[in-house]
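Is it possible to get an amino acid sequence alongside its tokenized fold?
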Amino acid sequence: MKNKLSVIISTYNHGAKLFSLLDYLDRLNVDEIVVIDDHDEKDGEIRDKLRSLKTKSRLIVTSRPYGPWATKSVGIKVAKNDYILHLDGDCEPIDEDIIYRHLDWLRKGYIFVFGNTLFKEKGLLTNAFYVRYCLSSNKYFINKPTEFDGYNIIAITGNNFSLNRKMLYTKDIPNLGLYAGDDLYFTVLNLRRTGKKAIFDPTLLVKHKHPLTFRKLIKKYYTYAIGNGVNRRIFGKLGDYYATFLIRVYFSRTSIALKRFGLRPTLLFFALYPLYAVIAIPGFIRGFTLKIKKLKIGYKEIEI
């Protein structure tokens, strides 16, 4: 049992992408697939799909839409195995060995294993946002597995990570509902309280689609800043990428951004950067006053 892996999939209105992911996992003969549906009223379709799989599968439905922090928390609690891999329902794994490689890292004693994300977008605005990662995040420049602890945060991703449940200090992800807030809080708290190490493996890739409208972009900037404020307040400085409300841009990486995303998205990012600062400052301030409330999550298991 200790070497088996439960795959937890958080989903909300993911449709065909989810079914494609389930077919992919079914071919790999994983020990258990658990779909956590955040009450999108498509549980009937998901149940029928799970019934067609040869892999032992379960369906958990929340009593109302809570957000990804809740589906991940539920998944950690209901999994049959202590080794747990989390994937978002719209992820598309690239490597056929992704399951076994996550499991291999967990067997080596890491509390968390974080993979990388490949963003393949066509929208100008979305690509302009991802230029931000290239110019501010070190994960674009890590080409081999690198370990870290709660005081040296390299990179985490909420859509492709695994954990050893036996090592956790807390299984509860806080109700922040934020990007770069709930996952980071959960990770850093567990790393610091347990003294265990995590590993970031940039070769564990999934494709992940995040189309952005201008309104969504503003919301993302604001919620990033709130999460950074919360984590700075509680943990102190975590590193340039995650804890500064005004991101540090490395202009020397512009040529990399141009090659990766093209001229127009790169230029648009620099045009949007002042907007990021204006939106982020009040969000960061709010993060210092936001109370982290515990919320009981209602959910039930649907018979397959």
